[in-house]
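Assess this today:

___
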Amino acid sequence: VDGVLGGFGKVDPVDVRESALFLQDARAEYAKSSVVAPRCERALDGGAGIGRVTKNLLSHHFDKVDLVEGNQRLLDAAPDFLGERREHLGELYCATLQDFLPEEGRYDCIWVQWVVIYLTDSDFVAFLQRCARALRPGGLVFIKENVLDTRYSSDLLKDEDDSSVTRSPRLMRHIFRSAGLDIVLERHQEEWSDDMLPVLMCALAPRE
């Protein structure tokens, strides 16, 4: 896991713990207003890598989890990495998020973590629109990502080394609105190092 998280393997337990609580809370919140009770049949792990989020989070809440990952080598390693959680493994898709076209009406949950920094704003909006169409009734899209804090006056920070862009919470919300998604629940990762950019979790539902 340390390699998967770029040397920050120690964050995995706190990341998973708060993600699990957020997942449960968001689905419960959405159930209050949705005419369809949330189901736990199939999730999608977006930008899955070798399946850390699937193994430690999603496979504990959903019967099957599909993985989409742009690196075939990482995707090939996923079944062995999942180990005892392998029975929950669904389909494996080798594609970048900007090119991935999920099947419509397939997922109860789409979880996308630490990868949208590699999407342009327009690709991000288009990806979210495709995700919205891929949800089953009662399903939600989850975005968990580093964001800029109040130390930054701009809404966007570019990293020329890896071509990533870190956005402000305000810009993230603008992108969600542009994609036709409403925020069901929003929460910062609470247990997190002060010397790392804060992490924002957002649960999103298609606008009625």
